[in-house]
């Protein structure tokens, strides 16, 4: 295998997320701890840095929204656990906000390199701003990569999770600029009689452009409510 690929990971959408066990600000965690939950695993370049601080505060403020989507947050950098704790406490002292999610101390970069979080063209040590959305079956569903100097747009991460969950439970596709509550795209018909039926439905309900592009209402009950969920 190519050395660069081996060192920087080959994680792809649709593959099982690489397993790991790590020390965090809330004690030891492993990927297995998140079975039955969705997981947002995100890396940041370093503690006590301005963009990262704004991201941590923003993630903390909307943590309850992720929880409603049966989703956990898990941060990572190659800083030490002591550094994470000191930064976490500094954020609390300055803002009154306690970071409710763990931050992995990946000192030797094992997890970062396994997931391809280090871009050697940018830095051999700092992780860039990666986001891995892993579903409740441990499958990588989305990979986002941001540069060091641009913070993530967290509402988009929430939107992506809702879109994925909506698509999973309705077997529908998600159109451009979709936000929760808007219609989704019906699966295409697989036979000619179903195609004709779809055209008749569009004519009756005015809910599409042609047989291959028709919409249906989104079913909000499909989205998983996690309050009291023991899975």
Provide an overview of this structure.
Helix content is 32%, strand content 18%. Strand 1 and strand 2 (29-30) form a beta hairpin. The protein has helices spanning 3-8, 50-61, 63-68, 81-95, 110-114, 154-170, 192-205, and strands at residues 21-22, 29-30, 38-43, 71-77, 103-105, 129-134, 140-146, 184-185, 208-210, 213-216. It folds into two domains: 3-152, Glutaredoxin (3-Layer(aba) Sandwich), CATH 3.40.30; 171-222, no CATH class. The two termini are 38 Å apart. Mean pLDDT is 89; it is low at 1-8 and 224-231. The chain is built from seven helices and ten strands. The radius of gyration is 20 Å and the shape is elongated. With 231 residues, the chain is an alpha+beta fold.
Distance between the termini: 38 Å
Q: Which radius of gyration do the C-alpha atoms yield? A: 20 Å
The H-and-E topology, N to C, reads as HEEEHHEHEHEEHEHEE
Mean model confidence by pLDDT: 89
Total beta strands: 10
Question: Percent of residues in beta strands?
Answer: 15-25%
Low-confidence stretches: 1-8, 224-231
Query: Counting H and I runs of at least 4 residues, what is the number of helices?
Result: 7
Neighbour order of strands in the largest sheet = 5-4-3-6-7
Structural class: alpha+beta
Count of domain modules: 2
Core attributes:
18% strand, Glutaredoxin, 32% helix, three-stranded antiparallel β-sheet, 2 domains, disordered C terminus, 7 helices, single chain, alpha+beta, 231 residues, disordered N terminus, five-stranded mixed β-sheet
């Amino acid at each position: 295998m190519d050395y660069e690929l081996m060192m920087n990971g080959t994680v792809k959408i649709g593959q099982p997320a690489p397993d790991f066990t790590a020390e965090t600000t809330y004690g030891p965690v492993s990927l297995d701890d998140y079975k039955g939950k969705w997981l947002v695993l995100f890396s940041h370049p370093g503690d006590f840095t301005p963009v990262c601080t704004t991201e941590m505060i923003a993630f903390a403020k909307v943590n309850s929204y992720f929880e409603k989507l049966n989703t956990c947050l898990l941060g990572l950098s190659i800083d030490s656990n002591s550094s994470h704790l000191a930064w976490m406490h500094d954020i609390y002292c300055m803002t009154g906000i306690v970071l409710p999610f763990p931050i992995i101390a990946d000192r030797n970069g094992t997890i970062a390199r396994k997931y391809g979080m280090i871009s050697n063209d940018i830095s051999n040590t700092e992780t860039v701003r990666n986001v891995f959305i892993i579903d409740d079956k441990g499958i990588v569903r989305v990979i986002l990569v941001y540069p060091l100097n641009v913070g993530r747009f967290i509402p988009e991460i929430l939107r992506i999770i809702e879109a994925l969950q909506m698509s999973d439970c309705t077997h529908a596709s998600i159109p451009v600029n979709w936000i929760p509550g808007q219609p989704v795209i019906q699966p295409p018909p697989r036979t000619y009689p179903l195609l004709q039926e779809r055209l008749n439905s569009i004519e009756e309900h005015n809910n599409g452009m042609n047989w291959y592009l028709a919409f249906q209402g989104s079913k909000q009950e499909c989205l998983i409510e996690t309050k009291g969920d023991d899975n």
